[in-house]
Amino acid sequence: DTQVKKVNDETYIRDVLKSNYVREVKSPSYISYSGWVIALAYQSGGGYDYHFYKKQNSTIWTHKPGTGDIMQWDFSHSTITDPANCNRGKYDTFVGYYEIMPNIFQ
């Protein structure tokens, strides 16, 4: 299925993010002074499931699994300090860190 391949293709995902004025950043320690820093992971092996994380401050990241509450813990109940290295559960492929600027939504 072509759509599944695209969703699970890191190059495609990065291109979609860039086409929506999202800038890739290289480090989880990056601090945005005018936007938000997010991270993206997805479930490999088919399907359409991906997951975003949002940086809350210099050391804590949060995420919202499904319809549950926003939380700062990973799937091992540890505080998320870096989405690339936390227990992401089924989201086994980490894509990267990105900065979203607020003016793109105007």
Provide a concise account of the structure shown.
By secondary structure, the chain is α+β, with helices and mostly antiparallel strands. It is built from 2 helices and 5 strands.
Written account of the structure:
By secondary structure, the protein is of the alpha+beta class. Helices cover 15% and strands 26% of the residues. It has helices spanning 2-7, 10-19; strands at residues 22-25, 36-42, 50-55, 61-63, 93-100. It has a five-stranded antiparallel beta sheet, with helices on one face. The protein is globular, with a radius of gyration of 14 Å. The termini are far apart.
What labels describe this entry?
2 helices; 106 residues; five-stranded antiparallel β-sheet; disordered N terminus; globular; alpha+beta
Count of alpha/pi helices? 2
Residue fraction in strands: 25-35%
Sheet with the most strands? 5 strands, antiparallel
Strand order of the largest sheet: 1-5-2-3-4
How far is the N terminus from the C terminus? 35 Å
Structural class: alpha+beta
Shape: globular
SSE topology string: HHEEEEE
Show unreliable segments: 1-5
- Number of DSSP strand runs: 5
- Helix share of residues? 10-25%
Average pLDDT taken over every residue = 83
What would you report as the Rg, rounded to the nearest angstrom? 14 Å
Give the topology.
Elements: H1 2-7, H2 10-19, E1 22-25, E2 36-42, E3 50-55, E4 61-63, E5 93-100
Antiparallel strand pairs: 1-5, 2-3, 2-5, 3-4
